[in-house]
Design a protein that fits this description.
Tumour Suppressor Smad4, Lipid_Phosphate_FormReg, single chain, about 25% strand, alpha+beta, Rossmann fold, kinase, 2 domains, 9 helices, five-stranded antiparallel beta sheet, globular, two-stranded parallel ribbon, about 250 residues
Length: about 250
């Protein structure tokens, strides 16, 4: 981060580096930055860090600048920012330079609440079913998994899928009701999914005021592997897969 700070300072910015100390700390730091009158928060990390920062900056005038140094960097992939390989200095500085010269763009934010009423904003997608099940049981990830990046996440996921409990669900989208056995209900705000490795909604935009709601029917987890392979091949009209736009 020192190299990035030096670059921004050379362009006339005053930069204060604030390392995170624990989960959730990035939200606190972002809120403090807003209180101190900061114009921009450079969120250096992966998608988890960006999510925390977004929750601290939502509905403020402070700008979030995503610097991709995480594992999957799905948000950075969505914006087509350079991704540093093994923290490569050249790509990191290239991404920082693009942020300096980029345009400010507002985007849609999702908001989800749990059974207790606690809520969080999200940037890219929110899922119920196999998606949420895997995140709940995988995070926080062990060091070996983080070192392997998306492959590590995939290996952990495969080991857990056999224990996934299926359930029926009711999904209401702008007054329309859908009821079935769904392996995954996914509310997406972007083109990419699964760590940026799968293009799920090619026409999606971060700022169009719409979400793409995907419903994947099935009772056996093996069906999700079939859906994934079909989407990888460009198929999105297979029986059992339903996409509905909603607000």
């Amino acid at each position: 981060m020192t190299l990035v700070a030096d670059l921004w300072q050379a362009r006339g910015w005053q930069v204060d580096i604030q390392p995170t100390q624990a989960a959730g700390h990035a939200t606190t730091l972002a809120k403090t930055a807003v209180s101190n009158g900061s114009q921009v928060v450079i969120a250096a990390g992966g998608d988890g860090t960006l999510s925390e920062v977004a929750n601290g900056l939502a509905h403020t005038a402070c700008i979030m600048a995503p610097l991709p140094v995480g594992t999957a960097n799905s948000f950075a992939r969505e914006l087509k920012l350079p991704l540093p390989l093994f923290r490569g200095k050249h790509q990191l500085l290239k991404a920082a330079d693009l942020l300096l010269n980029g345009r400010i763009q507002q985007m849609d934010l999702g908001y989800s609440t749990d059974a207790t009423g606690n809520g969080r904003y999200w940037l890219l997608w929110a899922g119920a079913g196999v998606d949420g099940y895997l995140v709940e049981h995988i995070e926080p990830r062990p060091k070996w998994s983080k070192k392997l990046g998306r492959l590590g996440y995939m290996l952990q996921g495969i080991a857990l899928t056999a224990r996934f409990p299926t359930a029926s669900a009711k999904v209401e989208i702008d007054g329309r009701l859908y009821e079935d056995h769904y392996l995954l209900t996914l509310i997406s705000n972007c083109r990419l999914y699964a760590g940026g490795g799968l293009t799920i909604s090619p026409q999606a935009k971060l700022d169009d005021g719409l979400f793409e709601v995907w419903l994947f029917q099935g009772k056996h987890i093996g069906k999700m592997f079939q859906y994934g392979a079909l989407m990888k091949a460009g198929r999105r009209d297979f029986p059992g897969m339903t996409m509905v736009n909603g607000r």
